[in-house]
Every structure is written in C-alpha cells, then in structure tokens.
Amino acid sequence: MHLITLIPGDGIGPEITKAVTDIFTAAQVPVQWEEQNAGQTTFDQSGELIPQALLTSLEKNRVALKGPITTPVGKGFRSINVTLRQKYDLYQNVRPSKTTEGIETRYDGIDLVLFRENTEGLYSGLEVWDERLGIADSIARITVAGSRKICRAAFAYAAKHGRKKVTLAHKANIIKMAGTIMLNACKEAATEFPQIVFEDKIIDNMCMQLVNKPEQFDVIVTTNLFGDLLSDLCAGLVGGLGVVAGANIGDNMAIFEAVHGSAPDIAGQGKANPTALLRSALMMLHHLGEHQYADTIEKALETTLKDKEKCTGDLGGKASTSEFAQAIISNLGK
Length: 334
Fold this sequence. Notes:
- The chain is α/β, with parallel strands linked by helices.
- It has 11 helices and 12 strands.
- The longest helix has 17 residues, at 144-160.
C-alpha cells in the first residue's frame, strides 16, 4: 500500500480530484490518500498559503498528487508551484504529449516527452528594480550542476523507455554563456548514452518545427522559460492542457499535477474534465512501479474517450465530471 499526499487544490480541483480517487477505488489501486491542501481556499480558512501540515506530509510520503492551485493575486504572494519545486529541488518538469484516438486534433502520430528544467532560469526570483532609472533586471540563473542534472535525466528517461532521440532547445547563439552551459551538459550526457541520438535546435526554429512537423521529435530537453512555453505548445498539438499529464520530479520527491488552471468560473458546475489529473495520477503509478493498474485505467480512459456521449463538454460530449468518471469505471477491464 502506497501512502500518497493528496492536494485537491482550488476551483475545479476538488471535483476532478474526486473523479480520480473514485476511479482508483474502483480499480482497487493499492494507495492510501493523505489529504492536505494549499492555495486560495486554505489561505481564506487559515491565513496560510502552504500549511506546515502539507509540508510535513510531503516530506514523509515523498509522493503527491496535486490538483490545480490558485495563488492569491496580490503583492508578496509567490507562486505555490514554484515554491514547492524550489524547496524540494524538483528539477524535472516532465510533460508527455501524445495523440489519442477520440481527441480531435490537427495532427497524428505525436508521441513526445518534454523535460523542462524546473528550478533555475528566469524563475530563480532574482530581480532588481531601479526606480530612479525605471529599469528592471531579471536574472536567468543557469548552473552547470542544474544543467547536468536535467540533461542526464532526459537521456536516462530515453534509454529506460526505449526512446531513440533527445533534442535540446536553446538560444546559445545569442545567450552565449548560459546557452553553452546547457549545450555542453547535453553533450556530456550523450557520451554516457551512445545509443541515443542527440541533436540541438535554436528555440525559434524549434517552435516552427514543432508546429510544422511535430512527429519528428521524441524527447525534448530545455531550460525553465523555454520549457514553460514549449510544454504548452506541445499540449496544444494533442488536444490542450485538459488532456496532458505533468510531473515535478526530484531525487527524493515527486509531485504529479494537472498543469491547467483552477478555472473558478466553472467550479462546482460538474463541467470540468478530469483527464489531465487522471493521466498525471497514472504517471504517478508508473513512478511507483504499479504499471498494471496504470495500464488498466489508461485503457479504460482511451475506450471512454472514443465514446463522445460519455465525454465532458470540452471533448465534444455532454457528460458531467462524475458521469465521465463513472464511464471510465464501467470500462475498467474491458
């Protein structure tokens, strides 16, 4: 039995979280949930964005499933997601994007995984404001150690999962020192995994290539900001943020999450699509070695996605969140 920290989040978070836990219960997945929350709802109730009880649970269980969280808008409130990633050195943001039968897109045959460095770059929080001159400096901190870790993680994933190629997206032609650090880190990792083809592309060309011929890519690795942009682009190729999984992984902890927002405008209306959070939960099961349970639920999800009547509105159907979850449950084992 795996003890997992469960963070329902805000907005539609509790609804899609319940859908996932209901499916796990029906599939008899050997997990026990330890629920703790963070974000706007928690702040309204206790005045804390990230309660100590949540941090204690994370440090004990080392694995978590997280719904979308709202960070209150206002001076002094830092992103909860960035805070957790940096606090626990969750340096890998892993985002698979794969075309799925039943989800209408402009493309076919896409099956790629993006590795975004998750703790450095322009998200380091190193900013200086000179009021006299009206100048803001934001420092994109890139380290040799951080670059080596994310590049090696991408190559190791490719080797483990039978992938053939790793592509680095960078801007070393302009951002010469920081860009070269990542480029050199990937070249080092490539020597350790000679069976994996390595290529690098300038980020602007990479964006064009992803739109023009995305099926050419396999595993992509890049810096924090570029990864933030490319991961959403890749999600758009396969149906949007509502259908793709996400994970924040470090050497000692992993937090799996839906990467879309909390959508407070539709909260409580039963309209939310739980696919992204469910697929993130399936990534979590693979991380825990529970491959059979993950595969069984994935097959049930894929069967359900082919039946438009059983899907939520964003997928072309008329089902509610709970009805969609029940349809997946009914397809378990089929």
